[in-house]
Protein: DUF2273 domain-containing protein
Amino acid sequence: MSMAVIGMVAGMALGFAGYFGGFGAFLLVAALGAVGFVAGRFLEGDLEPGDFFRGRGDRRR
Structure:
């Protein structure tokens, strides 16, 4: 599935949540989507837990 299709589905989910559930539901869906995105990146191996705790000057890339 392409990134454009994934973005479209995420946008539609946020739109439905905002329309039917209000702004609170919109924020909840957006926050859970962000958590799911980060968890997916961890599972794919693109992120490591230390990436969030390292300082800016201590980049190992």
